[in-house]
Amino acid sequence: MILMETTLTWTCKPFAELTVFELYAALQLRSEVFVVEQNCVFQDIDDKDQYSWHLMGWHNNLLAAYTRLVPAGISFTEVSIGRVVTSPKMRKSGAGRSLMKKSIETTYRIFGNTPIRIGAQLYLKKFYESFGFQQSSDIYLEDGIEHIEMLLAELS
Q1: Is 156 helix (H, G, I), strand (E, B) or coil?
Q2: DSSP state, 140?
Q3: Which of 12, 81, 129, 133 is the most exposed place for a label (fewest CB within 10 A)?
């Protein structure tokens, strides 16, 4: 199944405007993928959510895709996109590509034309490069998973 971008309904809200349902869905999806599926014990709730914007792509009542957009100075010197996650039910549907495209557009809309830094799992390097991100660090271990920092230069 190829998912067309128009089948996802996008919402983006600061933490204080999230409904209980939206917050629960985001934390549940993050836990399902980052903790259970990737078998990684780590502190997902890290005191960055309160400062971030939360981009959610809904397919009916399913949270299909999610990222948090983090202001400069919280995770990195630059603004960042983090907790990039697609529901296992939506894999191979194009939801991940739609999510990153929408995340970049929304980051520029909220924070302006500024560089975006991410901490990417190494195996997703080519995926992020397809959006213009370039590796900007050596490989490092985070929660037992190989990561790299990547930077998307500001729009010219």
Answers
A1: coil
A2: E
A3: 129
Can you read off the two tokens belonging to residue 130?
């397809």
In SS3 terms, 110-126 reads as HHCCCCEEEEEEHHHHH
Q: Is the pTM value of this prediction over 0.70?
A: yes
pLDDT of 31-74, one tens digit each?
998 877 777 777 778 899 999 999 999 999 999 999 999 999 99
| The token pair that represents 120 in the structure block | 């990417």
77-101 per-residue burial string, b: 16 or more CB within 10 A, e: under 16: ebbbbbbbbbbeebeebbbbbbbbe
Do 51 and 15 touch, CB atoms closer than 8 A?
Answer: yes
Q: How does DSSP classify residue 31? A: I
What digits encode the pLDDT tens for the residues 79-134?
999 999 999 999 889 999 999 999 999 999 999 999 999 999 999 999 999 999 99
User: Chain centroid to CA 67: how far?
Assistant: 3
Q: Which two tokens stand for residue 13?
A: 């809200």
Distance CA 98, CA 131 (A): 11
Chain Cα centroid distance, residue 68: 5
Question: What is the three-class DSSP state of 52?
Answer: coil
Determine the 3-state secondary structure of 63 from DSSP: strand
